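To: structure desk
From: M.T.
Subject: fold request, one chain
Message: Could you run this one when you get a chance? Sequence is below, nothing fancy, just the single chain.
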Amino acid sequence: MAPAAIDPGSLASLSTADKVAALRRQMASVPGRSTARAPSADIPDHAPIAHEDPADVSAARPLRSFPAPLPIRTLLPSGALARGTSLSVTGALSVLTGLVAAASAAGHHVALIGQPRFGILAAVEQGARLDKISFIPAPGDDPLTVASICLDGIDLVVTTLHGRDIAPTRGRALLARMRSQAAVLVTTDGRLPGTDFSIASKPVGVDGITLSRGRVRAVTIESSLHGRGTPMVTGRFELRAAVNGSVEWTTVSSGVPANASTYRRTAASGQ
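Reply: Done. Structure tokens follow.
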């Protein structure tokens, strides 16, 4: 059974020390991160050697990849999102929603810190498990303190930066904690120095609307991803409603190098 989300009203009334204590108690009630036997969406860190039972290998070794929706997974240089990776996600919320949905559907615990615009119904339509998601809508003036605590026991931590540029020294400490815990950290609304990858997305097409009438059947999202030492690539992905009420990602085009003007424009915005 998933732990109950912290009531934002009671959290706001506490001192910083009491907030930290309350969050640590919340973290203590979360089942330990399943690095020993991770969900099936993960990939083994090493291929089993000849004399080992594959079942024993997967139980004994940490598993290193993390489930991600197509707009992230397809554009990454390795084709997978590794544990210990930090992401900046901006623009269309569908990509962030897809990341949360993919992680929770695979059995990973997720913390959403200061994300009042996050669409719960949209996440469920993409397959999210709400019992795996903890909502902290009002983390106060210092969401990074909350994120640092959540990284101790939660696989995917999504936090706002309140529109700030975080100091490099504090950013390094937070990223070091994330890597030591083999978690994934996603930031929104701000800039965290040292972030591994940044992905910016925007809607570029809608299927089903003609002459301002009709019903939306699909939305096409254009995403651009770049990271340290890697060129920017772009791709187009369609989020289409299925007959069973869910929505599914499909690739329209991907892996296209972005032109220089696109790179400068995105880099200037801190993505």
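Reply (cont.): The radius of gyration is 19 Å. Let me know if you need anything else for the meeting.
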